[in-house]
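Q: Hi! New to this. If I give you a protein sequence and the SMILES for flavin-adenine dinucleotide, can you show me the bound structure?
A: Yes, paste them in.
Q: Okay, here:
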Amino acid sequence: MTDARVRAAYAEGAGIYRIVPAAVAIPENLDDVVALVREARRSRLALIPRGAGSGMPGGNVGNGVIVDLSTGFSDLVVDPHSRTARAGASVTWAEVNDAAKPYGLRLPPDPSSGGFATSGGMVATNAAGPRTVRYGSVRPWVEALEIVQADGEVHTIRRGMGNGERFALTADGRRLIADHFPRTRKNSSGYALDRFALSGDEIDLLVGSEGTLAIVTEVHWRLDPIPPEVAGAALGFPDLESMAEAVPYLVSLKPSALELLDESLLQFIPDAPKVACLLLVEFERETAAAARGVVGDAVRGLKHVVTHVETAVNRTGLERLWDVRRQASPALARLPPTQRSLQLIEDGCVPLDELAAYIAGLRAAADRRGIPVAIFGHAGDGHVHVNALPDTTRDGWREALRGLFDDVTELVQRLGGVPSGEHGVGRLRAGVLERFYGPEVMQLFRDVKRAYDPLSIFNPGVIIPATDWSPVAALKVGAGAAAIPEDIATRLREVERSAAWATPKLELAH
Ligand SMILES: Cc1cc2nc3c(=O)[nH]c(=O)nc-3n(C[C@H](O)[C@H](O)[C@H](O)COP(=O)(O)OP(=O)(O)OC[C@H]3O[C@@H](n4cnc5c(N)ncnc54)[C@H](O)[C@@H]3O)c2cc1C
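A: Thanks. Here is the predicted structure of the protein with flavin-adenine dinucleotide bound:
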């Protein structure tokens, strides 16, 4: 479809960009995808695979052809005996879990966007969530992938099948990876060569490849039994240092979630406790006694540093405690229209012992650049989300935003972190990858890309930066934003404010 209104409806995803694509394709089945890839190869068109469009760093927008995989691939079969689910690329996290629940099973990593994030999108970004602190990102839960390759061939790649002989590492390459990959608990920044070096499995290159190596049409998920009992606590701290002291202790108790709400975010939530930071901790256990017992251990072990304690001994109580976290997004959505919440530095991940230094550095950078920020995230993984809240009527806000991006990139690098823990590199961070990994690992990334997609038809500019890369070009905000029909711009804004990413984007054009 090349109709201007349809193209406009696909010009934005979550995140900061507005780029009007050349066309939109909505494949209905595998044959359609194969035909599209063959045509792209022939005519050298760029294809931008896309699920719900909820990804943050601009991997789901671009000036080529958007391939909307959010509807045509909805088959879902759960096999309780092998504890697996075969899900088409369009199937959301919530749909997988709804189907698995009657068998007492679930897909443990739990992105907050699970209501709309598609299986294809989650695999492509190596998505994660609060429970990742215990169960990892989606990577270890991917058993097999059906993909359409750049030559138009369809393959099913299984864990344990080896490297597929497309790309192999030399001894020198392995040394480079060992020396240059950061030691954070999470990472969605570039091809996972460290995981590939360990497993020798091609699937580890494909997970987290952000639509740059192949189009995913089906995912075989591994499922896990739902633990029977849960308990938890909300713990308030007077300063960053005491919070940072508590985190490794709580991680040692094996929580199933350990989430942080910083005062920069708490101030927007009317009923939130008045503390410098709040940690929400959840423990899943086999018995109620074990779940309650570990909450007791957590509270007793931290009584010298906490200034606020609330506990919950079952799921209902825990839901009530976590309500404060759920109020955060609606609170930010109520900001005045001139103050936009922008995802620019939203996904940095640092080693756990640098968490306090990272948050202090974030606050300082925000002050220096005159841009308020709201900080929250996955404390147990050293992984912090930051919403930048610039006043877009202020002169120089765009330059200040760029300054904030540069300051925070430098900060994350200095602390031994990675620029993305779960959202991916996209277009936003492609240009800084080399600073984190060095030129030789970046060359390995280019070699991976060339091995899978020699004509660069899949998502050019994502992971491997475009020559004219700039993190704050093509913004959806401000006077320079690409012109699209006003009614579609308004509806896209509404989708963003209400996180209605499940909305079929064609509806916005009609
Ligand atoms: C309110 C909100 C909360 C969020 N919370 C979380 C969270 O807790 N954890 C988390 O990890 N993320 C979170 N995200 C980000 C986002 O939801 C995830 O990155 C999600 O995995 C993206 O899925 P999607 O279907 O929207 O993919 P899209 O945004 O459409 O695409 C994302 C990337 O994947 C590629 N891609 C998509 N489908 C395919 C496919 N079939 N084949 C190949 N490549 C493909 C695209 O090219 C793009 O690079 C959140 C986003 C929002 C808006």
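A: The first helix runs from residue 4 to 9. Let me know if you'd like me to explain how to read the tokens.
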